[in-house]
Structure formats: C-alpha cells, structure tokens
Design brief:
Length: 275
C-alpha cells in the first residue's frame, strides 16, 4: 500500500477548495444514496457528526433532513471549512465546524447519535484507528455510515499509467493505491466493535470529453496522488503524454469521450446499545 502524505493531502484540498463543488457531482450523488441506507432507522438524531465534511455538501443535506439536530463537522482542510460556512443552510452552524484529523477526533466519547463520512477514509493510513475513533465518539446505539473509493477506482487510468511507465522506462515514483474492498471495509467495522454491519460495492462509470478533462476534474477537487512516493522529477512530461495517448487508444469511445470507473463502497454499522 502507498503510504499517505497527509501534509500534501491537507495542502491540496486547501488549494482547491474554491473549485471543489463544481467537480464533485458524483460525491453529491453518492451522499444522497448513502442517506437512503438509513431507511428511517434514525428518526430523531439529536447530534450528528460529518467526518471529512469538505465544503459541506453532505452537511447541508443532513441539516435539511434533521433540522432540529446539532450538526457538527470536521475536516483536515481549513479552506474547505471556510467554504462550508458560507453556505446559507450552514452559516448559523459555523461554531460546530472545526479543523480535525479523522484519526484523532477531538470529541468526547458517546457524543453523537449518527456519524457520516463521504469519500474521506481512502485518504487515511491508520484505518483501524480511524474506525475505532468513530466508534468511540458515537453514543451506544449510534450509527455510522460511510462511502469510499475502492481498489478498482480509475482502473483505466492505472492501466494506462502502468503501460506508459513500461514504454518510457519511468520508475521514479508510484501511483496512489486504493486497497479498499467490500470485505476489508466490513472487517474494519467489525474489528472496531460495530454490529449489524453491512458493506456493498457498485461500479460507477463517468464519462469525460478527454483524458485532460478527467485529470482537471480530479485536480479541481484536490484529489491528487498523495503517495509519499508519488511521481516527480525527470521524465514526467514524456510519461504524461504517453499515458494520455494509451488511455485514448485503449479506452476512448467513438464519440471522442473517455470513461473513468469508480468503485464505490458503501458501508455502515451500529454501536451496540447498552443494556
């Protein structure tokens, strides 16, 4: 697995907070799907935590769904929080939004009825610790729902990158691995102590006008390669140009567009109630 450069993650999301929303339509759609997993099972959540809230896309929807709840949110990138605070639905809740590391949540144990996290956990190295932290801050009987991107995400990009590396003899870095699977996420929920766990996987295919547009969209969200051994230095230009050519040749569609696959894992669990 690629070790995550957390400092780089923070800088990248801070730098692209202003353009995040215009490229995050998929994340918004996934958030709506994740909400459907509640199925009315949490009717009166008094305190809710949105982990890795970003610009507040899901936080807004949680506030609309639970208007009487105290909505708390945290994110590693302060610029993301600043954008969230300017949204009409959230501006009155700004005191509840703080900069925080998911692996070290700054909340007391047994604090929340419901915890959400949309497309955040793939940026973590200490996965087990992060799940234990969520378990800790939930009240007994509290529920945790999350979505994240699995190992088949950007399969076309990874295949094109690998071929381009071979053809250009580039070996000065590595692509970011996303070693998540339905089974591994389910196991993490159970290991943290959750019960009634579930995990489901779905392959979503988005289409872009070109490979460059795909890369601009990824960069526009701040979701760049955060591996500690990410690509750098001499040979990058040639590698980049060859990767684009391979991608277009191998995966390009007759209308000129290119596909990009996202493996979406949605999962959840319940902190056991006290008896």
């Amino acid at each position: 697995m690629s070790a995550i450069d957390k400092t780089f993650v923070k800088k990248s999301f801070n730098r692209h907070a202003q353009t995040y929303d215009q490229h995050a339509s998929l994340q918004g759609a996934l958030g709506n799907t994740l909400l459907q997993f509640l199925n009315g099972s949490v009717c009166a959540a008094a305190r809710i935590l949105d982990i890795g809230m970003g610009t507040g896309i899901m936080t807004t929807r949680l506030a609309e769904k639970y208007p009487a709840a105290h909505i708390h949110g945290c994110d590693i990138a302060t610029s993301m929080l600043a954008h969230a605070r300017r949204k009409d639905v959230l501006c009155l809740r700004k005191d509840f939004f703080i900069a925080a590391d998911t692996e070290f949540l700054p909340y007391r144990e047994d604090s929340f009825d419901l915890a959400f996290s949309g497309c955040t956990f793939q940026w973590l190295d200490e996965k087990e610790r992060a799940f234990r932290e969520v378990f800790r801050v939930l009240k007994p009987g509290g529920r945790f729902l999350c979505s994240l991107f699995g190992e088949k995400t950007f399969a076309e990009l990874k295949s094109s990158y690998d071929q381009a590396c071979r053809e250009t003899n580039y070996s000065r870095g590595e692509a970011l691995a996303l070693p998540w699977s339905e089974e591994s996420v389910f196991s993490l929920f159970e290991s943290a102590g959750f019960i009634r766990c579930f995990a489901s996987t779905n392959l979503v295919r988005e289409h872009y006008r070109s490979v460059k547009e795909l890369m601009r969209s990824i960069k526009g969200m701040g979701a760049q390669n955060a591996s500690l051994r990410r690509n750098k230095g001499l040979g990058m230009r040639a590698l980049w140009e060859r990767m684009i050519a391979v991608y277009e040749h191998e995966f390009g569609l007759p209308d000129g567009r290119v596909p990009a696959t996202y493996e979406v894992i949605m999962a959840g669990g319940l902190k056991p109630p006290t008896h």
